[in-house]
Write a structure and sequence with these properties.
mainly alpha, 6 helices, 113 residues
Length: 113
């Protein structure tokens, strides 16, 4: 199991639970800014997971252009199912944000415009 998958799936539930928006607002002072931070982190997580999955599945890819029947590979199916069971990147990013595991800063130029 990769370091990323261990980190992401250690304590995060796959179930979407209601969150108190006031808690998100308290972290930055602005709800929309908090959501933007979470969205950017979710995108980063999604890209990392997608790259890792493609690298693992690339091992099973056939690089020939023949018309032979494609057989199912049980290992490939298990890898795909494991990634499907992983929590949504938005849920992971929200949890990281609430646990102060995301570093963010305010751009000074935005404060004056």
């Amino acid at each position: 199991m990769s370091k990323l998958r261990r980190q992401l799936s250690s304590s995060t539930s796959n179930v979407v639970e209601p969150k108190n928006l006031f808690d998100f607002k308290q972290k930055t002072g602005n709800l929309y800014q908090s959501i933007a931070i979470i969205a950017k982190r979710a995108n980063q997580i999604n890209i990392a997971i997608k790259e890792e999955l493609h690298n693992k599945l690339e091992e099973f890819a056939s690089h020939t252009d023949s018309l032979e029947e494609i057989h199912e590979n049980k290992e490939q199916i298990e890898i795909s199912k494991a990634y499907e069971r992983m929590p949504n990147p938005a849920l992971l990013a929200s949890q990281e944000f609430m646990e102060d595991k995301i570093y963010f800063r305010k751009n000074e130029e935005d404060l004056f415009s």
